[in-house]
Write a sequence for this structure.
C-alpha cells in the first residue's frame, strides 16, 4: 500500500469472495470482536493504531473509514467499497488522475430513484428518536447545513452504500466533520437490542456522506455499482434494496387481511439475534 497513488479499501466482515489487486485492498472490519480472526488473518484489520473497531456493530463500514483517516497517510487518493459491491469503473494507479482530475472531486454511487423520501428510509432503519438525535446534532454543530439537510432528506434520490473515491485530503476533511457528529450523537442514542437496529451510525453516516458532498458543492462523478469488477451493474438489485426488499404479501386469515414484510435485512437481523419466525 505504501507506494500506491490510490488505495480502495474493501470492507469485509466475514470470509467470502472478495476482489483484490494492488489498489483494491480488503480490510477486516470489526476485527477486535470478530469470530473470524483466524480465517481472515491474511488481510489488514481495522483494529490497529487509533481505531474504533469494537464499534463495528453500530458503525458498520465506518470503522474502516475511521481507521483510514487516522492511520493511512501515504496515499493521494482513498476509496471505499464492499466485498459484494464495487464501482463499475475499475480504478488503477494509472487512470485515477483522469477520473478525478480538474473535472471531478469525488466518485459516488449513482442515485437510486426511490418511491419514498430519504427521510422515510432513515425512519424505517431506525426510529423517530434516533432521527431527531442525529439530525439535531448535525444542525447544532453545523447550522449552515440546514438547507442541504432539508433538500436531501425530502428527496427521493438516494446516494447509497457509504462508498466513494476522492483525494485523501478531501476525505480527511469529511471524516473530521462526520465523526464529530456521530461521536456527539453517540452520547445520546439509546441502542436497540436488535442487531439490525443497532447499526444506526452506519445508516446515518451514509446519508451524511451525500449531505457533505452536496453542501460543499463538490463535483461528483456518479458511477454504477457492480457485484464484482468486470460484471454487469446491480441496477435491478439496487432498486430492490432501496425499496427495502419489502414485498408486501397479502394473506387472508379469519376473513382479515394481514400484511407481512419479507425484508431481507430484517430476516438476517433476526437470525443474528437467534430469533426464528
Amino acid at each position: 500500500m505504501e507506494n500506491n497513488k490510490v488505495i480502495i479499501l474493501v470492507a469485509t466482515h466475514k470470509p467470502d469472495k472478495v476482489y483484490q489487486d494492488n489498489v483494491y485492498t480488503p480490510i477486516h472490519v470489526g476485527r477486535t470482536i470478530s469470530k473470524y480472526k483466524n480465517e481472515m488473518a491474511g488481510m489488514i484489520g481495522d483494529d490497529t493504531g487509533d481505531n474504533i473497531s469494537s464499534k463495528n456493530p453500530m458503525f458498520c463500514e465506518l470503522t474502516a473509514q475511521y481507521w483510514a483517516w487516522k492511520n493511512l497517510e501515504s496515499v493521494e487518493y482513498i476509496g471505499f467499497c464492499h466485498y459484494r459491491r464495487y464501482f463499475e469503473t475499475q480504478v488503477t494507479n494509472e487512470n485515477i488522475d483522469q477520473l478525478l482530475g480538474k473535472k471531478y472531486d469525488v466518485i459516488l454511487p449513482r442515485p437510486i430513484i426511490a418511491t419514498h423520501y430519504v427521510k422515510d428510509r432513515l425512519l424505517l432503519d431506525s426510529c423517530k428518536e434516533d432521527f431527531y438525535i442525529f439530525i439535531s446534532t448535525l444542525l447544532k454543530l453545523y447550522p449552515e447545513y440546514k438547507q442541504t439537510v432539508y433538500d436531501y432528506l425530502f428527496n427521493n434520490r438516494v446516494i447509497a452504500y457509504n462508498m466513494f473515491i476522492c483525494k485523501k485530503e478531501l476525505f480527511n476533511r469529511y471524516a473530521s466533520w462526520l465523526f464529530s457528529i456521530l461521536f456527539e450523537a453517540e452520547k445520546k442514542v439509546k441502542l436497540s437490542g436488535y442487531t439490525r437496529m443497532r447499526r444506526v451510525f452506519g445508516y446515518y453516516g451514509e446519508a451524511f456522506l451525500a449531505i457533505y458532498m452536496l453542501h460543499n458543492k463538490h463535483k461528483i462523478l456518479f458511477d454504477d455499482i457492480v457485484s464484482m469488477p468486470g460484471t454487469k451493474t446491480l441496477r435491478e438489485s439496487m432498486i430492490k434494496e432501496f425499496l427495502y426488499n419489502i414485498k408486501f404479501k397479502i394473506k387472508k386469515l379469519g376473513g382479515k387481511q394481514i400484511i407481512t414484510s419479507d425484508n431481507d435485512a430484517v430476516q438476517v437481523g433476526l437470525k443474528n439475534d437467534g430469533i426464528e419466525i
Summary: The first helix runs from residue 56 to 59.
